[in-house]
């Protein structure tokens, strides 16, 4: 298949958090769909730095597609709320929620000019329920991403821009999630698998497939939605 015949041929995509795991998988999937993909991570562009994000978006001439995948738990582990510091709270909230806000704000002007845009934010099952990590800021930021998505869908729909969320279940996508999985032990791992109707953990490709749907022509009348990609775990 030639690039010209691919669904996203001619589209420019910006994907954040592409160092590893889910973000990298999304960038690779959109590239296969024909998009010109620009991936950024914490070592290239800090998504909480407005000036850096604005400069990068300007350098690529704007984006037709934005996927907010940066954030995560920032190397933290769960602890009682009274032991959480201001800095730990802000680090998680800013990298997940504020970073998404800054990136959306940066790409929207060009999308409005073109009359077309697709914005997808990678939230989490933690944003729809609770976080298995026990990290309060993570569950809160991921829930806030869903609210931000709804509000942006309402605001931007008239300009031909759709805004949606993907809420992954448990995916072994990076050292943090692997360490979390290993900490459960054999019994805990089996308990988690038993709570997933498909009886398996997710992959970065599973999440990328959800993003591919939201940026495809088939989803042009879908906006403000959160798609759980979790093997059915959200049923419980």
Task: Explain what you see.
The protein is of the alpha/beta class and 236 residues long. The chain has one domain (3-171, 203-229): Rossmann fold (3-Layer(aba) Sandwich). It contains seven helices and six strands; from the N terminus they run βαβαβαβαβαααβ. It has helices at residues 21-32, 50-59, 86-114, 136-156, 175-183, 185-194, 204-215, and strands at residues 12-16, 36-40, 65-68, 117-122, 161-168, 226-229. A six-stranded parallel β-sheet has the order 2-1-3-4-5-6, with helices on both faces. Helix 1 links the parallel strand 1 (12-16) and strand 2 (36-40). The longest helix is centred in the middle third of the chain and has 29 residues, at 86-114.
């Amino acid at each position: 298949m030639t690039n010209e015949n691919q669904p996203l041929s001619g589209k420019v995509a910006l994907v954040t958090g592409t160092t590893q795991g889910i973000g990298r998988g999304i960038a690779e999937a959109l590239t296969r769909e024909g998009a010109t993909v620009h991936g950024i991570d914490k070592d290239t562009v800090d998504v909480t730095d407005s000036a850096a994000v604005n400069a990068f978006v300007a350098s690529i001439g704007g984006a037709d597609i934005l996927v907010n995948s940066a954030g995560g738990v920032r190397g933290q582990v769960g602890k009682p709320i009274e032991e959480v510091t201001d800095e730990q709270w802000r680090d998680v909230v800013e990298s997940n929620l504020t970073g998404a806000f800054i990136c959306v704000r940066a790409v929207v002007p060009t999308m409005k000019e073109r009359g077309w845009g697709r914005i997808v934010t990678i939230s989490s099952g933690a944003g729809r329920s609770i976080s298995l990590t026990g990290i309060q800021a993570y569950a809160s930021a991921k829930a806030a991403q869903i609210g931000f998505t709804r509000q942006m869908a309402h605001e931007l729909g008239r300009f031909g821009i759709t805004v949606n969320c993907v809420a992954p279940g448990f995916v072994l996508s990076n050292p943090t999630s692997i360490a979390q999985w290993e900490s459960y032990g054999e019994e805990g791992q089996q308990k988690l698998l038993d709570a997933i109707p498909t009886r398996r953990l997710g992959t970065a490709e599973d999440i990328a497939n959800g993003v591919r749907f939201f940026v495809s022509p088939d989803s042009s009348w879908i906006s403000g939605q959160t798609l759980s990609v979790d093997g059915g775990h959200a049923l419980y």
